[in-house]
Automatic annotation (TrEMBL):
Cofactors demanded by this protein: Mg(2+)
Top-level taxon of origin: Bacteria
Protein name in UniProt: Hexitol phosphatase HxpB
Pfam family, one: HAD_2
Highest classification ranks of the organism: Bacteria, Pseudomonadati, Pseudomonadota, Gammaproteobacteria, Alteromonadales
Key words of the record: Carbohydrate metabolism, Magnesium, Metal-binding
Keyword Magnesium in record: yes
Keyword presence, Membrane: no
Length: 221
């Protein structure tokens, strides 16, 4: 039993555990541009953290293309990202040290992601993290993905921890909204180019990397 008021740390996956957001953005840009969507990397930042079908729907509503098939486009993007993760995926700074620190404190560790099961499996395998999580939750089959809080609430329930005693770690604004709506404590680790954005003020804590987490956890002792 941990002496902290916190009982669990719940991680987002893309952009928190693995440096996959640039892969997502580049592949989304390629696939959507091929469909005639006038999109840029900067614009794609708006959909970071959304489930892939929600992302595809978002762009279709702004620039419709013929023969719309959300599932096909979504699967194309997911397949390309999964292959690239398996080939060249890299852990974010501090991932393994952070897992060890949370375990040493006796904290439960969960994963709450918008990504699909095949992507989760690819990431956990690539980073050798498969045995670290007591609960792995995906929003893929939920009615709503992030920014809806359900995936976070499901993770807390599976861990048997009141959401108020969970700390959620996010890199996206949509994910941060989800964690706040779930009534969790929150840490935002924005991409370097977004760290100066005032929107991150809604997080309880902002960090540059997971290496900052031990100091943040010390606040809850």
């Amino acid at each position: 039993m941990t002496s902290l008021s916190l009982q669990a740390v719940i991680f987002d996956m893309d952009g928190v555990l693995i440096d996959s957001e640039p892969l997502w953005q580049q592949i989304e840009l390629e696939v959507l541009s091929a469909l005639g969507v006038p999109v840029t990397i900067e614009a794609i930042h708006q959909t970071t953290g959304l489930r892939i079908d929600q992302c595809v729907d978002y762009w279709y509503r702004r620039a419709p293309w013929p023969h719309y098939d959300n599932a096909k486009v979504s699967q194309t993007i997911v397949d390309k990202v999964a292959r690239e993760i398996s080939r060249s995926g890299q852990a974010m700074l501090g991932v393994h040290q952070t897992m060890a620190h949370c375990q040493a404190l006796g904290l439960k560790i969960g994963l709450a992601t918008s990504s699909s099961t095949p992507l989760i499996e690819a990431v956990l395998s690539k980073l050798a993290l498969g045995d670290k999580f007591m609960s792995v939750q995906s929003a893929e089959n939920l009615t709503y993905g992030k920014p809806h809080p359900e995936v976070y609430l499901n993770c807390a329930k599976a861990l048997n921890v009141d959401p108020r005693y969970c700390l959620a770690i996010e890199d996206s604004f949509n994910g941060l909204i989800a964690a706040r709506a779930a009534n969790m404590q929150t840490v935002a680790i924005p991409a370097p180019e977004q760290q100066g954005d005032s929107k991150w003020v809604i997080a309880h804590h902002q960090a540059h990397s997971l290496l900052d987490l031990p100091a943040i956890l010390a606040n809850y002792a």
